[in-house]
Amino acid sequence: MYKAPSRRKNRSRPAFTKPNLIPILDAVFIFIFFLLMSASFIKIYEIPSDVPIISSGKPSKKKPLALTLVINNNGVQVLSGVPSKPINFIKKTDAGEYDNESLHRYLIQLKKRHKSERGVIIEPQIDLVYEKLVKIMDAARILRPTDDAIYGKSKEGIQERINVLFDEMIFSNISSIVKTRAN
Fold first, then answer.
1. d(Cα 108, Cα 114) in Å, to the nearest integer?
2. How does DSSP classify residue 114?
3. In the chain, what are the domain boundaries?
4. Where are the alpha helices (DSSP H) in the chain?
5. Closest C-alpha among 150, 54, 74, 53 to residue 110
6. What is the C-alpha to C-alpha distance for residues 159 and 111, in angstroms, rounded to an integer?
């Protein structure tokens, strides 16, 4: 009969065996790979909005346009100057939507008179659906190729076509909550 060597009998097994971490690490690296791959397919869009800047320089003699769009339940009120004075009111359409096309046409006429101005203050006084706010902002900032051409002088004094209306947007009333979907 075969007798096992005494070395094998006396060897004691450890009470705690180390877990095999290789499968766990493989899963973590695969998970990281998929996160990186999916992140490249997500497109995040942003509409820049600047914070008002206080200047220590001398104020210019030219009165600023200080364009403000006050959005309320009845439409969009256009204000100008310091202090703000109403210069136009764009009512909602018969369907109850904001008349962004009339607002856009009016802002083009305003831009023709104030070619160097680029700032606009957006002041929503009501809770507003996000998509409606973006459409109002687009009406105020985008100059379409089909719109009348507006020419102004560059810093170098060269006559050039203006490509934007009022694209430097500042939100005046941040406390108003913007809804993300229609009611």
1. 10
2. -
3. 67-179
4. 6-10, 22-39, 100-113, 130-141
5. 150
6. 16
Can you tell me whether residue 40 is helix, strand or coil?
coil
Plot region of 157 (φ>0 → left; ψ -120 to 50 → alpha; else → beta): left
User: Rounded CA gap, 100 and 19, in Å?
Assistant: 65
Please write the tens of the pLDDT for every residue from 43-64.
Answer: 666 666 666 666 666 666 667 7
- Euclidean distance between CA atoms 121 and 13, whole angstroms: 76
Instruction: Tell me the per-residue pLDDT of 110-169, one tens digit each, with 9 for 90 and over.
Output: 988 888 888 898 888 888 888 898 899 999 988 888 888 888 887 788 888 888 898 888
Beta bridge partners of 76: 71, 90
Q: How many residues does the chain have?
A: 183
**Between the CA of residue 126 and those of 47, 64, 140, 179, what are the distances in Å?**
20, 27, 19, 10
Q: Which two tokens stand for residue 89?
A: 């009111």
**DSSP per residue, 50-79:** PPP----SPPPSSPP--EEEEE-SSEEEEE
The residue whose two tokens read 């409606």 is 132
Angle between helices 130-141 and 100-113 (to 10 degrees): 30
List Cα–Cα distances, 45 to 42, 48, 134, in angstroms: 10, 10, 12
